[in-house]
Design goal:
By secondary structure, this protein is mainly beta. It has one domain: Metal Binding Protein, Guanine Nucleotide Exchange Factor, Chain A, CATH 2.170.150.70. The strands form 2 sheets. An 8-stranded mixed sheet has the order 6-7-8-9-4-3-10-11. A 3-stranded antiparallel sheet has the order 1-2-5, with no helix packed on it. The longest helix is centred in the N-terminal third of the chain and has 7 residues. The radius of gyration is 15 Å and the shape is globular.
Length: 144
């Protein structure tokens, strides 16, 4: 999907833009994403931090401690309607994850990968044709 992308919360109090193109999505099935979404997990667009900008309103955040790594994940949401907007690790690794359901147009995007499948709910659908990891994504391999 060509940039810029736009999105926002349910009530319209928070709006944002993403200046980087997004074509694939990643589903997270960790128990913290299940709790924060009230569903099987979250579906996310992973974007460079510098490409994301809030254009209207402001988010509130909840600093969540990742169960396995102990890292802090700031979960940003609309203070008025509660819509989850994005999450960002601390310190910033150079990317953040935007909740795909908040994008105004996600046509042409599909889930390409799933993480934390070991903790997926038994009723969650995970397409076997996608890349699946029982935990987090493996660390990138150094260039040879």
């Amino acid at each position: 999907m060509p940039a810029p992308l736009t999105g926002g919360c349910l009530c319209g109090a928070v709006r944002y833009t993403v200046s980087a193109p997004v074509t694939t999505l990643r589903a997270c099935h960790c128990t913290n994403c299940q709790k924060s979404s009230g569903a099987a997990g979250t579906v996310n667009a992973v974007v460079p931090s510098a490409s994301f900008r809030i254009t209207k309103g402001a988010t509130r955040k909840y600093d969540d401690s990742a169960t396995h790594s102990g890292r802090t994940l700031s979960r940003h949401f609309c203070a008025d309607c509660g819509s989850p907007i994005y999450s960002q690790r601390n310190p910033d690794p150079g990317f953040l994850v935007v909740r795909a359901g908040t994008l105004d147009d996600s046509s042409g995007m599909k889930i390409a990968g799933n993480i934390w499948t070991a903790s997926a709910r038994p009723w969650a659908f995970i397409d076997p044709a996608t890349e699946c990891h029982p935990g987090n994504m493996p660390a990138p391999q150094p260039a040879r």
